[in-house]
Amino acid sequence: MAAGDITGRPQRLNGAGRAADGAVLVALDFGSNDHAGSLAELRLLAASAGVDVRAVVQGRRARPDPALFAGSGKVDEIARACAATGSRIVLFDHELSPAQQRNLERRLECRVVDRTSLILDIFAQRASSHEGKVQVELAQLQHLATRLVRGWTHLERQKGGIGLRGPGETQLETDRRLLGQRVKVLKSRLARLQRQRDVQRRARVRGEVMSVSLVGYTNAGKSTLFNALTHAGAYAADQLFATLDTTTRRIYLPEVGRITVSDTVGFIRALPHTLVAAFRATLEETIHADLLLHVVDAASPVRDLQVEEVNKVLAEIGADGVPQILVLNKIDLTGVSAGVDRDDCGTIRRVRTSARTGAGLAELRQALIEAAASKNTSRTPNQSGLLSDAHVT
Hints:
Blueprint: E1 22-29, H1 35-48, E2 52-60, H2 72-85, E3 89-92, H3 98-108, E4 111-113, H4 115-126, H5 130-144, H6 171-206, E5 210-216, H7 222-230, E6 247-253, E7 257-263, H8 273-278, H9 280-287, E8 291-297, H10 303-316, E9 324-329, E10 339-342, E11 348-352, H11 361-374
Parallel strand pairs: 1-2, 1-3, 3-4, 5-7, 5-8, 8-9, 9-11
Antiparallel strand pairs: 6-7, 10-11
Helix pairs in contact: 1-4, 4-5, 5-6
């Protein structure tokens, strides 16, 4: 399972120096409007985790099976696919309960990873900053806390520990206690980083610098657009969750002066709540921003659903009240021309761009100029600038 062990060290799906493990993907249709899109996204997630997809098992059900999620007959089909392809991992495009995951692993005799654990694993691989690693580890341990009963063979044994366990304390109780201690340490570290962010934010408020955050679905082109706007050289790749650590740069616009622009982690459907909670300090940069550039992959056939998913997460973290400009990126793949759309008041609400070719960047800068010019200098607490210059390099 893609979660941290009891010492807090992340466990990876694909260990360093090893060939990618073979996997069978399982995607069941419970009447979703975008079953095919969800399966395609699972393939991308698996590739991002370094897993070699060797087979896909699909099916339709009215509701999940309480014990095995997929039902006995479908589990037998999954077992045959694993045997035929030599796969050692089964990836479910769904969230499994601890009991379902445990039952499936016993039945299939291989590792079973649900969508939440897979996303957590990718975040563990990609986090590079100290804060990012702390946030991912906290999310992993909080997810693991609900699954300590899974797969353990020594839990029935009573063990006394010299200087570690009390008399008669079970291994499960010890694991829970150690996990709780580690979570407490990580939360303390994040609180300290939060205070540092608050100091930086207050300094930025005093300077009356307008703050802009790029938000959007993962792989929508946020980092490429960020680099095009700021010449920052931030890491950008055609993969899910290429960016985890927030990067902030100042840019100068002759008409309005300096503004700060931040590139943030991308969102995805069914983003684990533990991950949203752990990354709240980073995501709060969007709460305190004066403007959100909501970057959308204009070439995606499910772009409207992706916009909805991003707005759901923004509402969850309390950033749904921050003004937005929709940036339709990747127009070079659609044949649409660059330009802007204004509302009845003449305010720019949508910008059509291609970060890769540079088309529409002038229009986007104009949108930023107009937003900065109209910004009220007496800002509300929820729109008082960025929380920090996280990862300003």
